[in-house]
Design goal:
Elements lengths: L5 E8 L6 H10 L12 E10 L2 E10 L6 H5 L7 E7 L3 H5 L1 H11 L5 E7 L10 H10 L3 E4 L8 H17 L48
Parallel strand pairs: 1-3, 1-4, 4-5, 5-6
Antiparallel strand pairs: 2-3
This protein binds guanosine-5'-triphosphate (GTP).
Length: about 220
């Protein structure tokens, strides 16, 4: 058995070009990749972090933002413990699409999923979305909120560490079924220390979202 306490699946979604791949690369490899292409379908990376002396393995799924991959990427929502919905603070259209992404989440993800809204590219000088606008959206939809810059490595570590902390607490409090089986989308190396949202698929009950409605932080 591998040496970790919990394995969590974290899935990034959001419009093409908002910086999902850069956030994942920054966190897992510590770099800001120069001019890379759009994600095709889905990609994943693994990073183990330490939370209160325990090793927590994060399996981070980076999905393609382009519409044509939507049916592939949707199938990854259901086994996610956390969904990170990313928009670009310098692009109003990426923010305007958030309600569509929320509908997708409600349709395809577990109602127990931890939902995080991320406003990326805070380093840009042509910001269109003030912090308060993102905060307000997250608040209204019971999501955590944080602003990041993958380029400047601002809040990226914090984003993933806070998710790992929160998921660890949720598992310990019985929010997820501890020993439920791994979904069919997992790679072969997934060990037995895995917890999954027990309530999958379309059975969304609005009230269940309240359990995930806290803030991580906003950079101001
Ligand atoms: N200024 C700035 N640019 C960023 C940041 N993050 C990403 N970018 C740029 O935004 C563009 C798109 O980044 P990606 O990470 O490929 O975006 P994506 O969301 O993964 O896109 P898809 O794979 O098509 O869904 C690239 O040119 C990045 O260099 C950031 O924090 N600041």
């Amino acid at each position: 058995m591998e040496d970790y306490k919990f394995l969590f699946k974290v899935v990034l979604i959001g419009n093409a070009g908002v910086g999902k791949t850069c956030l994942v690369r920054r966190f897992t490899q510590g770099l800001f990749p120069p001019g890379q292409g759009a994600t095709i379908g889905v990609d994943f990376m693994i990073k183990t972090v330490e939370i209160e002396g325990e090793k927590i393995k994060l399996q981070i799924w980076d999905t393609a933002g382009q519409e044509r991959f939507r049916s592939i990427t949707q199938s990854y929502y259901r086994s996610a413990h956390a969904l990170i919905l990313v928009y670009d603070v310098s692009s109003q259209p990426t923010f305007d699409c958030l309600p569509d992404w929320l509908r997708e989440m409600e349709q395809y993800a577990s109602c127990k999923v931890l939902r995080v809204l991320v406003g990326n590219k805070t380093d840009r000088e042509d910001r269109e979305l003030p912090t308060a606008v993102g905060e307000d959206f997250a608040h209204r939809h019971n999501m955590y909120f944080i602003e990041t810059s993958a380029k400047e490595a601002d809040n990226v570590e914090k984003l993933f560490i806070e998710i790992a902390k929160e998921l660890t607490q949720l598992v310990r409090s019985g929010h997820f079924d501890k020993d439920s089986k791994v979904g069919d989308l997992s790679p072969a190396d997934v060990g037995s220390n895995v917890s999954l949202p027990s309530d999958r698929g379309n059975q969304v009950r609005g009230s269940d979202y309240a359990c995930c409605s806290r803030w991580i932080s906003s950079s101001s």
